[in-house]
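Schema walkthrough. Field components (list of strings):
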Amino acid sequence: MLRLPVVRHVAPTSLDEVIELLAGDGAMLAAGGTDLVPNLKRRQYPEAKTIVSLRRVAGLDGVSVADGGTIRIGALTTVARLATDDAVPEALREAAGAVASPQLRNRGTVGGNLCVDTRCHWLNVPDTWRQAAEPCLKAGGEMCWVAPAKKICWAVSSSDLAPAMIALDASVRLVGPDGERTAPVGELYRDDGLVHLAKAPNEILVEVIVPAPQGRRAGYRKLRRRGSIDFPILGVAASFRLEDGRVNDPRLVLGAVASSPVRVTAAEELLAGRPLTDALIAEAAELAGKSVRPMSNTDLTSRYRKRMVPVFVRRLLEDLAAD
Amino acid sequence: MRIDPHHGVVGRAAPRTDALAQAAGGLVYVDDLSYPGMLHGSILRSPHAHARIVSMDVSAAAELDGVHAVLTGADLPVAYGLLPVAQDEHALAVDKVRQVGDAVAAVAADDPDIAQRAIELIDVVYEPLPVIATMDDAVEVADEPIHGDGPRDNRHREVSLDFGDVEAGFGRADHLREDVFFYQGNNHAALEPHGAVALVEDDGRLRLWSATQVPHYLHRIVAKVLEVPEHRIRVTANPTGGGFGAKTDVFAHELVAAKLALVTGRPVKIVLTREEVFYAHRGRHPVLMWIKTGFTADGEITAMWFKTYVDGGAYGSYGPASLLYTGQLQTTTYRIPAYRFQGVRFFTNKPACGPKRGHGTPQPRFGLEVHLDRAADDLGLDPVTIRERNLVRPFSTTVNHLRITSCGLAECIDRVVEASDFHAKRRNLPSGRGVGLAVGAYMSGAGLPIYFNDMPQSEVLLKVDRGGLVTVYSMAADCGQGSTTMLATVVGEALGLEPSDLAVITADTDLTPIDLGSYSSRVTFMAGNAALEAAMRLADLILTAVADELELDTDDVTLGRGVVVAGDRRVPWVEAVRMAEARWGLLTAAGSYKPPKDIRGDYKGAGVGPSPAYSYSACVAQVDCDPETGFVGVDKIWLAHDIGRAINPLLVRGQIEGSVHMALGETLMEEQAFRGALHDGPSLLDYKIPTALEMPPVESILVESIDPEGPFGAKEVGQGPLLPVMPAVANAVHDALGIRVDEVPLRPDKVLAALRDLERGGEGRFGPTELPPYEFRRPLPVDPPPELR
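Field assembly_structure (string):
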């Protein structure tokens, strides 16, 4: 089996200590470790010196519902818990239940899934393989092998939870050396495979806040080769309210088609204020398909994945319309 | 001599004797072994697909604290290969590397981390050479062939045979059909990666444990490469976490571990990473094939011409046999009065292919069964009729001189057709859903050993102690198929004992007599027959002694369950055994098995394909396809298998279900694909194996044809049931969507491409259309057997 590089592992009990340790050279944050450990084994983080575990910090897990229906989800809540907790909106449960495999859901956390590193089939391979290929841009090389024309990393956003959270208008609470801030989940991401999170390395995602659903219909659909284990090669999350038969506040978010989740604002604008007919759904689905350009960097062909966007969007919207 | 079971041991569905240990983590795999002072080996592998080694500097690695030895190609210069005709490998590269992952150097160190650091310190200077990544590349004249020095040397082997008058057969046909298919390669993906532990015993002999299916062949090759006499080496095959053919070759890590143990005098362990397993490979060959068949208007085959282009990867391995297998077994299911087979295996700079479950036969079987389905459509026949018109006859000889004995294929077809309600469903299920039929046959052991010799292929020794315990000694390596349980069951049945009351010692070259290995589905038939012969001899010794002691006629003394029935007395087993030991001294008996000689022809190539018996299978698959996504879901598989006799029906069903799972993986998603000469994703995340969620219910139907030569009438089940599944699914997809994906795996994008072709007025096909520009030699004419002339 692949060996872990030799690193120091520390598990402080307070957030302050975690933040301080993360400022150190080569420090990396771990929650469930389900993304970090295999990436470390593949030597994707040659700079890693210290693994700072969040797991001993108390009070970071659990799901609670405040007065008014706001749902607060601790960053260390397991994905398995999210998938099965009745207080969690169905769309989030669907997305959580689609993450990886049962074993990994038991170990992986909500915060970890939101922060999961971008992936690419030139990168997420053993280092010996990467040496044979010559390392790509994200592996410290000069070129991106997916699209060598530009010095851009196209590694894919691979979180199942992120599109669903964005569709539900959720926010994250981040704690860093300068205090804490709250930001919409969508603002957590940058469309850059190299640095995909819009937060400081020693800012810690501690909580997700999901507003009360208030009649919002929402769902998540995932494309992958098998019914378990696989990362998404397309994720579709959508939500809206139906008021007097018309769509209100629609949100349509695609995962695994770029380095960040992608909101399809053109389709949202099309849907807003209109009756949700089959024709409208089809039109929105086509718009979504035209709005993204998946690359050849994960399972199945980019052409196929692009072709699946309108299919998955249409099916999800049809299901939500019928609810 | 046919022996029928009557003690109720054979035929009983019972768990494996080691089932609990296996389920509870008790089996000792190679990676579980640990010895005091054990060192850890690691292998430096080539990052180049084809390159000359200009220089190598190992000094920094050798000087690293905790490193005990460093080896390079110069330390293991003897070439080897599993087949005598393919001695083209070195444990560590000499002069040249031929694939990414070729072993280049090795170290032994105090722990795995030091070993890994050490190999990273080895400085190798390579001169890259032109890479031959595909068969199209390999056809071309090469300045730098992968092996040899001739301009066309990337052609590894060629075969070109004519059985009967093929042109005359085409001439009298009412209908001719040609098809082209591609079957992608795939890996065995056994959950346990390969591994070996070696040490030097107190008496100076070398001891080697390995996750291998072939301890005997490993023994021979370790002796050859290390230049140590065989009697100074002891090889043990540990229980394996799956083999499927992956562990039937000899690999660099085994030879390197042994050499490192000799050099350091310390125990050495090497366990491969998953990436290394994909580079060691020896999996399914990618095969491009072309089939032309002549039919009468009634669907009777008049002649067949089969061409295969086989992508062998960087080494010979079992390749010469694999190539012949792509042509030889077509005749075991259908009467083909005239048959031309032309095949060529190429070297390419990719991991070497070899035997995987079905060895060389699933690819042509896929092509043949889909081809027949289309011919049936052409002729207005249904898929059952066209097969029934051509079924091979029991106890006949094929045009390529294979001896057919028991054959339950007709019954297999009847049973799956009936159980699945095939006729009612075909063309009548709602859009997107469909059913498909296919059949297959496989050998119950290869008729010839890997290296030519006249000795038995399997030998079994029995020893009885005064407590009544019968110990069975056999080199048969249990690779998960249950051969140890089979031996206990056969001997138990013959002696009237419970399998759990026997001890079975296996797969150890010091302790056990020859069994050639767990490959070609040979163990139940061959080791089973050897065990049965030994048990009958032992029974004879015991019955004679009891008769003598009690002054009875031997005819009046028989074996009961745990007793000897002597006239009106019932002598307990232990007492009978003691009488026999008093009469004969130490109670032992031996049995041997060698296949009959009259099961094959005498042309070049005739050694591959013959078997003392063939198993037969028929499969119906029912699929549910999503025409928008191209996903093919399998609702259910019906599989009838002619097992001869089910020695243990539970294990038979286990093999059928396992075969179906593996087959569905190959059909739908598994592929050893490459980006250039780089593996497309050497991990079990990227290499897609179906999960439990993709696995449909399997209805297994056992057909017992009672083979006249099998032990209690038994034949094989480890490989045969895999064969019809892939084409049955492809035929079902055609029934469901009206398309033909003539390429395995049937990925969703290919299904959509075929659907698009259909929408645009095409025939609804996705698959290869062209063959490599390769001129075969003129076929060597072989006279058909007298009955077919």
